[in-house]
Amino acid sequence: MKFLKFFLIVIILFPLSSINAEENDKRNKITKNLRCLICQGQSVYDSDSEFANSLKIVVDKKLQEGLSEDQIYEYFKIKYGEWILYDPGLNKNTYILWLLPILIFLIGGAIIYKSFIVKK
Amino acid sequence: MKNKILPFSVIIIFGIIFLIFYKGLEDSKIYTPDVTTKKKIPVFNTKEFFSGENVKSSNIFELDKVYLLNIWSSWCVPCRQEHPLLMSLNLENKLNIIGMNYKDNLKNAENFLKELGNPYKEIFIDLDGTIAIEWGAYGVPESFLIYNNEIIKKYIGPLNQELVDEINLLIK
Known about the structure:
The complex is a heterodimer. Chain A is mainly alpha-helical. In chain A, 13% of the residues are buried. Chain A has helices spanning 2-32, 50-64, 69-80, 95-117. Chain A has 2 domains: 2-87, Helicase, Ruva Protein, domain 3 (Orthogonal Bundle); 89-120. Chain A has 4 helices and no strands. Chain B is α+β, with helices and mostly antiparallel strands. Chain B has a single domain (39-170), classed as 3-Layer(aba) Sandwich (Glutaredoxin). In chain B, strands 1-8-7-4-5-6-2-3 form an 8-stranded mixed sheet. In chain B, strand 7 (142-147) and strand 8 (150-156) form a beta hairpin. Chains A and B meet through helix 2 and helix 4 of A and helix 1 and helix 5 of B.
């Protein structure tokens, strides 16, 4: 009987805690990608400032409301601008940032190909 | 041909990098938040400061009136500095000053108002700072000039005489 009770408790508690953990992971992931705008070089996740603490509460609230990660980013982007995101999207201000590495990689590859492989 | 491509592409790559860095030189190094874009004010529910009654944001801000929303707190030192300016702005009676009490102890906040005077037409409270986030605020003190439910201008940090003159010009 005791064993049965224990078993029931485990069954009841286990999925709940895993759901909680999942939500926590999501929250941490989101707050790590949000810049603490009044701190220097810290994410909201790392910071303990008033601003960051309030932001964490808002992220929690939005998650509870059922908003997806992208919707939450969009929400903060509207409120504070692109700067709040650590991972900026591709747009007219950031295209160099995204395309330059590919460009350099291609040019570098072409140089290597021309000067080493074709030589053989 | 082989010999020409290499120096040519090196020059091009350095040219591109130079251009990007040169462009970067002209940009401001300090992050300056956008303070002029017109945005609708957020909708929220909160509590009135003195009575503790629930209030809706739509009941605080009416159309066709100019408001100055001031985020303040008794623990914030710059708020103390700007308070006399708010008092004098209130005396001129051209705009309605609304206070948002930010993450404060209510007793301390009441003492603050007793000591320095109350320039606010209405005060509501933001205990956990989430309403300030809705407004896109960074901290205390911060002020928003509002007309027709739109944020006309945002003042981050304490107000000074220069900014008060600017507000007076804007609401003329």
